[in-house]
User: Fold these one by one.
Assistant:
Number 1:
Amino acid sequence: MEIELWWLLALPAFFAFGWLAARIDLKALLNESRALPRSYFTGLNFLLNEQPDKAIEAFLEAARLDPETVELHFALGSLFRRRGETDRAIRVHKHLIERDATQAQLTEEQRLQALSELGQDYLKAGLLDRAEEIFLKLRSTSRDEEALRFLLEIYQQEKEWQKAIAIARQMPGHADHLWHKEIAEFHCELAAAALLNGRDEEARRELQAALAVNRKCVRATLLLGELEAKLGAGETALAIWQGIEQQNPAYLSLAADKMLAVFRAQGREAQGIALLRGYLERHGSLDLLESVFQAVLAAEGPQAAYALVRDELRRNPTLLGLDKLLEAQLLLAPPERRADLELVKSLIHNHTRRVARYRCSDCGFKARQFHWRCPACGGWETFPPKRSEEFDLTP
């Protein structure tokens, strides 16, 4: 293949230009490195040697000597907030904002970021009113979605459920049912407060609104049944609670004792027990077993309660079920065998305390009692009414 003469002349020129560009870049890099304060490199050295406290002090000195290190200010503020030193984080971010107001050194995006970081500092420090003020200023800016998310968190902490509903309706994806579960729960919170204060009609409106947003909201169904039972409409309450089987049968255990109370008030306890036994056979649950066990023990005696638990253990073998079986056996056992049974039951019970907790399906947080909202991650309806042993046994 022939090579034209001009290519031979051009190749040395290309190499020369490349060498010159590399020298210029290297020179610029060296100049930038010399321009950085010595304390900046000292801080990096402390950080690499896992001495974060000394590193922070060095970085603070670097930020003081070179006010243009905006990203360093952001990094320090975020680090302080994660360490729980919110007062120092607030000072760093307020310094950035005040400096921008006097010297106009920040870009618009940096100014908005500084405001957002300051709002997060206030939120972490528990200064919710100040955090709310900051995030309201960030509405209709490039940080709008972020502001919505933090405002929703603030209103949930303050239990401002109407404001939380308004914000959730503006969240991205609301039209795709992404926030309908949360909105229904906010309506349920309003309804629960209204029921507690005797505002029955207001509670009914909120519960109807919750079910209109999310027809599978079990909590709304439970509260609506409680409202009807309170007003003396027992049959209506029972019909409402029985609808939980179509919504989510795992939550039937939350309605079991309420249903039994209505059946007893009507003189139909046997019918109520039969209904719950049917639920137990179709939707095995340790909490439901506990409710049915206590009802059968009181109405039919220890022999019937023992037979109930034995049959359930054959369907769903669990340690918590075995604990109930031993409880029934103790009631039936002759005096000379009770000491041995009590010893076995004590050993089983000590172990079952570790597997008898509820567990958040999102973050794994465990609690002794059921929660509609996880105390750890704040997720709604992430605590199924199942004990951790049931989770472990589920394929």
Number 2:
Amino acid sequence: MTIRDILFTLCRRMKIIVIFPVIVVTLYSYWNYTTQMPTYSSSAVLYTIDKSSTNLSEIAMVERLMVNYKLLAQTSEMRELVSISLGESISDTGVSVSIDTTNHTMTIHTQNRNPAKAANVANVYAATIINYLKDTMGLTNITFLEEARVPSSPTGPLREKPIMMAGIISTVVGIAVVFIIEYANTTIRTSEDITKNFNLPILAEIGKYTKGKKK
């Protein structure tokens, strides 16, 4: 198949190439905006070294303990304690913990469809960790550095990029469908088809008759 044949096929089946992506993008956009609710993110930051501490050995020890702090923060027991402190379940809230040993900070990241709850869970989670380490281990080297704030705009879900990808993929699929239809269609439409498929010469052709036109 030559480039001319490819272009001719695409032009002749342009409706499929255009309509198929439009339908797919429309349906996907409707699903995305009606079922995928916006989510809000918030973060509370803890400082893991007592600000009055200048002992290098203590600082080095805390840096090693920060990994354990992170593991502790991610346990189901800690989630239960936070739920008790809040007076409600946090099963609808995504919680992740990250540490920065360079700046000696631990950050509680939360995600929820309710922006106020996202911030509230982050702050209560951080306070629960501080109280737990103080009450059970006598550690006082963790303090609030930055409280979580109520987010003003959603951080998810992503909408534009998936919709754009749906358009690109559906266009490629539409073009593939066009060529599948063409290869599956054995109808002889032109004299070139006879020459190409049967290797026979063309002896004569019947011209196209247009009604009302004199020859």
